[in-house]
Amino acid sequence: MKKRILILSVLFTLYIFINCYFYASNSLNNIEDSVFRLHIIANSDSDEDQALKYKVRNNIISYMNKLCENSSSKEETIEIAKNHINDFKQIADKTIADNNFDYTSTVEIGNYKFPTKYYGDIALPSGNYDALEIKLGNSSGKNWWCVLYPSLCFVDVSSGVVPDSSKENLKNNLPDEEYALISENSPTYNFKFRIVEFFNNNFI
Prior knowledge:
By secondary structure, the chain is an alpha+beta fold. The protein has seven helices and six strands; from the N terminus they run αβαααβββββααα. The protein has a domain at 35-173.
């Protein structure tokens, strides 16, 4: 009897584990496939290099927002970014030179590992996301992240306000469950969010 109970307990635990794994994997894939991010890495952690990072950020976001004003999909936004990748480098390098630094930038589009990040009342779990990555100089300093599509980038990050239009775009590109997962601040979805993080960090 005890052996049977033990076997049933193991099978039940395995069943829960498998279901949680597939839930986390599917949810994370849907979220990763729906956003295009921006990643800027400073030359170093000096006050001067960190201040420059934010100046580059402001200029890149300002230019990108103009380019993608009418973009209606992640794919279209990535295509626009690819077509203007030299412009991003020129903007970054000009910002660097205008502030009297002697290094340059490296600009690439690829798929990169990101930690969990909060954008106002939107939270994106850690995972591998498509992104425009800008490395400044030795790129050994602290980085800065935001989302280019749908636009969750705000120059004044302290405001923590995500535009309703951005939320609407994100909602339109995600299944209801995944959108609720990253936007609803409730015990149920906070617990599900932790499940996604746990399985992504340890198994996915």
